[in-house]
Structures are given as structure tokens and as C-alpha cells.
Write the C-alpha cells for this entry.
Amino acid sequence: MSNAHNAGFTGYLQRDLLLAYRRHGEAASPLIFFLLVATLVPLGVSPEAGRLEPLAPGIIWVMALLATLLSTEGLFASDYQDGSLEQMIIAPQLLAMPVLGKVTAHWLVTGLPLTLVSPIIGIMLSLPSDGFIPMMASLALGTGCLSLVGAVGAALTVSLRKGGLLLSLLVVPLYMPVIIFGSATVQAGIDGLNWFAPLAILGAMLATAVALCPLAIAGALRLVSSN
Amino acid sequence: MGSGRDWTWFHRLGSPRWFYETTGRWLPLLWAVTLALLVVGLVWGLLYAPQDAKQGNSFRIIYLHVPVSFLALAGYYIMAIAGAVGLIWKMKLSYMVMKSAAPLGAALTFLALFTGAVWGKPTWGTYWVWDARITSMLILLFLYLGVLALQYAFHSQDTGNKASAMLALVGTVNIPIIYKSVDWWYTLHQPATIKLTSAPSMHPDMFKPLLVMILAMYCFYALVLILNTRVEILQRERKTGWVRDLARQADTGPDNQ
């Protein structure tokens, strides 16, 4: 039985990764958005390094959050439209496993690239050099949380035609702890403090989210697709 | 005694008609108690409680601010528990309670923020401060608005009910995390100049009217929640026989007298 669950997880992980690979334009857009908005900050605030530096940790985190949020909307949309979501739901395996596979694929396609690209934005916003490792570590764990929590909202709004704005209304309040500890990790690294402490809390949030969110997502998908 | 019999009261709770008729009998008493407590609490707090040594009369807004904030937070749990009961036992009535609790809670949260801002101006010299409690309240308002928006987003009432109940539950799991995070965030960035006037050692003469006001606000909440739910029941059950009978009675009632 556990093999069947694993198959549900790996099957959907591979499928979604393959789909993302075939549609790489779509997968790249959160990254481009991330870079694009980073360009707006110096234009809107000031090009001076001295003024960008204190803002950098917070701004990088806010932008990563928005980029993840934008990509979350489509997480279940195409599956819902072409009916493969129904297939996933009526399959005999625990629904939470394929859901976790899909969310993991989503993180691999958005959260991980965002983490890898973030040093460029760190340089653009003159983030102090002590902040780079904490930034990447916190983004890696934090975007996982964002993907999982965002998927709950995406599942609840999947049947709505204009779910995007509603999705952000539902999900952003739930994102707030992540952004608090995410940017605190970066700030602690810059200040020379122990940044493992806030990072550990991000890790705890991720562990909780991995355990609970797939159940909520599965429940939400069942409920929305049954009507 | 079969264990089945012990549950009949619980299933009867699920009947909108039973709820409507029972609360109809309670309402006059609840109105009286609420009004009495509100009048006593407000007059006592606003006119007879002693002035604050530092804040003068402006502290009196506490008699509105604190009770409203209590209910704003408690209201979220009431809404989420009603939603959970609906999801677990598939009770129509509890969804109606949940739907009625959402706008009420959002309004109370807004009122808590508003009275806080009004109080903040004379006390701190500014309407808005990013204090831990204020920020948490603002996030709570957003959580309420999300539940409200989701409730009305679906064509099918049933889906809207279930989806918003689920969101309320997810929010419930998150609220302690959000509160702790915001608390921690605030201690990290604590601005030294502003400090909430803590009132653990409030004088009994000031505290007693506050207690009355908190009680009054609980009664007020219960009253408005019941009234909202009754309207919701009538609206959703408008095609059933008993609601039609009620409407017919209301139509012909004045003529017969």
C-alpha cells in the first residue's frame, strides 16, 4: 500500500516537472517578474547603495512572496479544466500524496529557481555580503512554506474564473509569519547575529506545513470539484 | 438508556426551524439583558469611573475598545467552530451561524482598530503604530475579509459554505502562529519611544465597569449573531412550509387584531 502512495507522489512529481519543462516560458515568468520588480525598487526609492541596503532583506522577501503567489494560481487550474484533477481524486490512493507531489514540483519549478537567482537581486539591491547565505537558506525553506500554503488557496479557488485576486486575499494573511522570519534571518545574518534561530523556526513552519497542508489541499480539492 | 438517545438534543440543534422557534422565545430576555448591561456599563464607565492620572478622560474609550477587541478575536473562533461543525456533521444550521458570524466579526475587528486609532492620537500622538497587537488585529481583519470574500465567490451556496469553513479552519491553525510571530517581530524591532499603556494594575473602580462592558459585549454579540442567523434561516428556508406559514401569519396578523 505504501508503494502505491509513493507512486502517487513520484508520478505526479515527474508529470508536473515534465509539463513545466515543456512549457518553460510559463515556468520562467515568476523569475522574470522577480528580476523586473527588483529593478523598480531603485527607480522608486533611490539608486544610492546606502538607502537600498537597509531595505534589501525585506524587499527581496516581499518580491519572492509575490512571485510565488503569482505562480500558485495556476497550480491546479489546467488539471481542473482538462479533467485530470477528477482522475486524481477518484484514484484509490490517499489524495494527499499526489497533491504533495504536485506542490513539490511547484517548489522545484519556482521556489528553488528564485532561491538560486536571489544573489543577483542581492547584488542589485546592494545587500551586504554577510546576508547572502542566510538569504538563500531562508528563501529555500520559506518558499516551500509559501508553495504549500498557497496551494491551499489555489485549491479553494480552482473552480472560480477570476480566482487570482481572491487567492491573494486568502493567502497573503497566512504568509505573514513566513515573511517575518524570512527577512529576520537575512537581517540577523547582516547584523552578525545567530541567524540559525529564525531559520530553524522557518524549518519548523515548513515541517508543520508539509504535514498539514496536503490534507487541507486534498479536502479543498474534493469539496470544490464535487460541486 | 441507549446511547442513541443522548444525541437527540444534538441533532435537534441542526434543525433551523427548532433554532428559529427556540431563539424566538429567548430574544426578549436577551434584548433586555443586553440593553441593561450596555446602559449600566456605559454610564458607569463614561460618567462615574474616576479619571486616569495620566490620560485624563481619553482613557474612557477603553470601555469600548477592550470589549470589542475581545469579541473580535473570540468571534473568529466561534465562526471557525461553527464551520467545523458544519463540515464534520453536515449541519445546515451551523453554516448559517458561520455565515452570520463572518461580517459581525469583521465589523468588530474594524471597530477595534478604529477605536484603537482614536485612542492612539491623544495617547501616543499618532493614529497608527505598528505595534504587535495592532498588527495582529489588522491581520485578523484580513483573515475575516478572506472568509467573507470566499463565501460569496461561488454560485453554489453549498460550495461557498464549505470552502469558507475550510479557510476559517486553516486560519484557526494559523492564528497562534501569526500572533507569536508578530509578537516576536515586534520585540525585535521595538521602537523605544512608544509603549502601550499596560493596565494590569487597574484600579477596581475603573475595572468593574470594564467587566460589565465585557459582559455586555458578549451578550450583544450573541444577540446580533442570533438575529443575523434568524434572517439567514428565513432567507434560505423561504420555500419550506413553516417559513411560508410564518410569512402568511405576519401578513394577516395585523388585520385580524
